[in-house]
Write a structure and sequence with these properties.
Blueprint: E1 2-5, E2 9-12, H1 21-27, E3 28-29, H2 33-41, E4 43-47, H3 50-57, E5 68-72, H4 74-81, E6 86-88, E7 103-104, E8 109-110, H5 116-122, E9 130-134, E10 144-149
Parallel strand pairs: 3-7
Antiparallel strand pairs: 1-2, 4-9, 5-10, 6-8, 6-9
Length: 150
């Protein structure tokens, strides 16, 4: 959806592609589909690596559009939101036909509850895939250190 503002110009609000519900039903544990969608829609997501960000940006549905990329001071964000931050070991919104890994009630974990040793053993180069904040980050502007359009 395109939105416009006299002073600030134009922006697009978009969603990711729809989730494959057949696979989601097969891999979802400990919650209903409605609960899972509420969980995803009720949080702010942050990419942790440029590689992950670029993979999304270059996907067919998004490759032709410019994206404004905000780089945040992660240490400052964590200092302010440490009690709320939740981490995930997978891209929680990507449910591909071949997905066979479970997701659900235990997917998002607080920093102190995150299975660090297990994740470092399984995926040493990428033990965390998503950093999220349930609710909102209303003061995100104070964490922004760079903005670029790609």
């Amino acid at each position: 959806m395109r939105i416009t503002h006299l002073d600030h110009g134009e922006a697009w609000i978009r969603d990711n592609k729809p989730i494959n519900e057949t696979v989601l039903k097969r891999t979802l544990e400990g919650m209903s589909l409605a609960d899972w969608y509420r969980t995803l829609n009720g949080r702010v997501f942050f990419w942790l690596t440029t590689e992950r960000l670029d993979k999304l940006r270059s996907a067919g549905a998004y490759a032709e559009r410019e994206h404004d990329i905000l780089t945040l001071d992660t240490a400052a964000l964590l200092e302010a939101y440490a009690e709320k931050v939740e981490l995930a070991h997978l891209n929680t919104g990507a449910v591909h036909a071949s997905a066979n890994y479970p997701r659900g009630a235990g997917t998002f974990r607080r920093i102190g509850d995150y299975p660090w040793k297990e994740r470092l053993t399984i995926a040493r180069n990428e033990p965390i895939v998503e950093l999220t904040v349930p609710g909102l980050v209303a003061d995100v502007r104070r964490f922004v250190v760079a903005v670029e359009t790609r």
